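Re: the request from the purification team.
They wanted to know what the chain is likely to look like in 3D before they choose a buffer screen. I agreed to run a prediction and write the result into the notebook, where they can find it.
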Amino acid sequence: MKAANLTPANGGDDHDFEPAYGLPEKLPEREHMLWQGSPDWKRLTRSALHVRGLAFYFGVLIVWRGANTLAGGGSALDALVSMAWLLPLAGLAIGTLVGLGWLAARTSVYTVTDRRVVMRVGIVLTVTFNLPYSAIASASVHHHADGTGDIALALNGDAQIAYVHLWPHARPWHVRRTQPMLRALPRAREVAALLAGALAASAGIPRRGLHAVAPAAGTREAGEAMPEALTA
């Protein structure tokens, strides 16, 4: 598999026919998988799709509509009826976002090898992005209180991916210089430490006692055995 491609490597939506789960091709013999997993759909829905903010918006709107009816001389029953009219719309909007979050997490697979990061993303049209370590300038991690976290990858030089192709797997507000983001990762601290070590090794800095991280609960196992440890 070529490791220098920042454009979509494959298309299609039937993952059962993947040569290797989450990958467009099987890994070369000298390349080793360190970790593979998918976003936590609940955290992805909250942090990337902002479902809580939408729920709050509809809550304020519903209360305001009821208060406005009362202020206009309506009865309590009139206020309840006017508020009830918004409930189906609120349920549809929130339900749509939750469904999108679940689908996005279910169809996304992040893979970290000793040479690159691979992102298989997309609900309707699946695309796979290969991010060799030579194309990654730096990585930053943001931790959430529930133990999940997001890892953003800043790309080197001319390496660029359109924001719309990555969303919601892109760092928010970084549109001009898009940063791919591994979002809502379970056990994010361990994955971040592993990735930091792999990036350092790629740059020629010795690795010491870096261990592969087993797939998170609920994620599909990799197609090949994971190495026990990476040492200098």
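For the purification team: Residues 42 and 101 are 7 Å apart (CA to CA).
Please add any questions underneath this entry.
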